[in-house]
């Protein structure tokens, strides 16, 4: 059977950055709570002329420049911070990217799991038509209410992936483990621009879903834990990945290391918990893009991945989760570019807490007519709203 998977991938984020030490000081919280307790040092913040469309298209642009557009007949845009109830964000991205009209576009939603749903659907499309390639864009702006416990776990990011036959980066294996439960741990009602969350319930729901998905992977004939070399988890904050690793250790009995922070003493087999969380620690939560930012981080910082199997646990509140695996292909070293991601993170423009709070209060996804200030340094911008329709332009 043809191997199918991620041929190439690229990350993007917002224009601004907030230091969590500053947020802690403003909130009267010990900085250690955010930096060690949650495992986050920064969070990306969008400028007023950025949104999930501009960020997702910014991730896809270099991917298409490197790989061309031949054979792309599907664009799947995964997000849980959608800007319209009807029109897929990917339709605007298609125009910005100059993709032709014979590309079907759809938006996929199931909280942070939507990106994995898009990836698996793309694998199915390529299995039927191996000459086709599918563009998957995961893009999210994670927003909680100011002064809420979720506030330090905000963030923004996008990862675009090209799914094809004979991929250069990661072959997706067939077995998968699913766990779906109807739970009110996190959601965003139609009339709210911020998520509603029961934080501690969500942590428990995530961990129970991990147990369920792992057991289902075993039942589906998936690999033994000993045959999985690296493990990535959805990272709403990086400490959550450590909690997940602890749970998987209990469930499987395998001594996999739960050391998260650089310099922590490993307490078992290193499965890449630290290397897979370098970018997320600085991006904050990027919802659908989070596990794929984790994948980018692992690929960029681990030189010995060729032929290694990676386990990926994708969780979307509400909740749907999946544990699946992939094998890293020899072409990954030529595809990765750690300097690119570092630059992306380093070039963000810092904002004070007062500026960040003003940005948080700016209109988000509302249909009131508006013209946005020109701020973003990205290739595309959200110009505002005219007659209730969102306007995008190439910068
Ligand atoms: N130094 C070091 N650590 C400290 C500290 C200090 N000074 N003060 C506190 N801590 C530690 C605590 O011990 C705790 O560690 P453990 O989790 O290991 O016990 C950690 O910091 C957090 O402290 P609290 O639990 O007291 O924090 P909180 O109640 O204020 O909020 C939260 C934590 C519930 C995760 C909150 O940030 C939140 O609601 N986040 C949004 C929801 C979320 O991310 N859920 C994750 C699962 S759902 C999901 O994954 C989907 C998604 O993307 C949203």
TrEMBL record:
Give the record's GO biological process terms.
acetyl-CoA metabolic process
Which residues carry out catalysis? 80, 112, 234
Its top-level enzyme class, in one word, is transferase
Q: Which SUPFAM superfamilies match?
A: Thiolase-like (SSF53901)
* Annotated residues for binding of (3S)-3-hydroxy-3-methylglutaryl-CoA: 144, 243, 285
Q: Example GO molecular function term?
A: hydroxymethylglutaryl-CoA synthase activity
Per UniProt, residues of the Hydroxymethylglutaryl-coenzyme A synthase N-terminal domain are 3-166
Q: Where is the signal peptide?
A: none
Q: Which keywords annotate this record?
A: Acyltransferase, Transferase
As recorded in UniProt, coiled-coil segments are: none
Q: Which domain of life is it from?
A: Bacteria
Q: Which residues form the Hydroxymethylglutaryl-coenzyme A synthase C-terminal domain?
A: 182-248, 278-331
Instruction: Cite the InterPro entries for this sequence.
Output: HMG_CoA_synt_C_dom, HMG_CoA_synth_N, HMG_CoA_synthase_prok, Thiolase-like
- What NCBIfam families does this protein's entry cite? HMG-CoA-S_prok (TIGR01835)
What protein name does the entry list? Hydroxymethylglutaryl-CoA synthase
Q: Which organism is it from?
A: Corynebacterium variabile
């Amino acid at each position: 059977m043809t191997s199918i998977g991620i041929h190439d991938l690229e990350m993007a984020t917002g224009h601004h950055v907030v230091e969590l030490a500053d947020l802690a000081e403003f909130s009267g919280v010990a900085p250690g709570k955010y930096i060690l307790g949650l495992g986050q040092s920064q969070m990306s913040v969008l400028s007023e002329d950025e949104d999930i469309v501009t960020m997702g298209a910014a991730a896809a642009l270099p991917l298409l420049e490197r790989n061309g557009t031949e054979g792309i007949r599907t664009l799947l845009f995964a997000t849980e911070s959608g800007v319209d109830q009807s029109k897929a964000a990917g339709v605007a991205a298609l125009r910005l990217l100059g993709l032709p009209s014979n590309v079907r576009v759809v938006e996929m939603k199931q909280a942070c799991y939507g990106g994995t749903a898009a990836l698996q659907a793309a694998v199915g499309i390529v299995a039927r038509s191996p000459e086709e390639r599918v563009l998957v864009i995961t893009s999210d702006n994670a927003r909680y209410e100011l002064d809420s416990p979720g506030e330090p776990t905000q963030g923004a990011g996008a990862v675009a992936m090209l799914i094809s036959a004979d991929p250069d980066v990661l072959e997706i294996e067939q077995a998968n483990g699913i766990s779906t439960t109807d739970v009110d741990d996190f959601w965003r009602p139609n009339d709210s621009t911020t998520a509603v969350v029961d934080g501690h319930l969500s942590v428990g729901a995530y961990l129970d879903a991990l147990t369920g998905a792992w057991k289902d992977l075993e039942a589906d004939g998936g690999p033994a834990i000993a045959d999985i070399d690296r493990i990535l988890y959805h990272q709403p904050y990086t400490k959550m990945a450590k909690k997940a690793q602890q749970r998987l250790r209990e469930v499987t009995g395998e001594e996999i290391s739960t050391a998260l922070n650089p310099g922590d003493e490993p307490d078992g087999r290193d499965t890449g918990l630290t290397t897979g969380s370098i970018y997320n620690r600085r991006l904050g939560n990027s919802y659908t893009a989070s596990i794929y930012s984790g994948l980018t981080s692992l690929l960029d910082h681990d030189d010995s991945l060729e032929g290694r199997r990676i386990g990926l646990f994708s969780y979307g509140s509400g909740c749907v989760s999946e544990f699946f695996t992939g094998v890293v292909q020899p072409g990954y070293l030529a595809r990765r570019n750690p300097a690119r991601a570092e630059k992306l993170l380093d070039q963000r423009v810092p904002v004070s807490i007062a500026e960040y709070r003003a940005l948080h209060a700016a209109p988000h996804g509302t249909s009131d007519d508006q013209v946005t200030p020109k701020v973003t340094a990205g290739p595309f911008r959200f110009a505002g709203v005219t007659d209730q329709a969102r306007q995008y332009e190439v910068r």
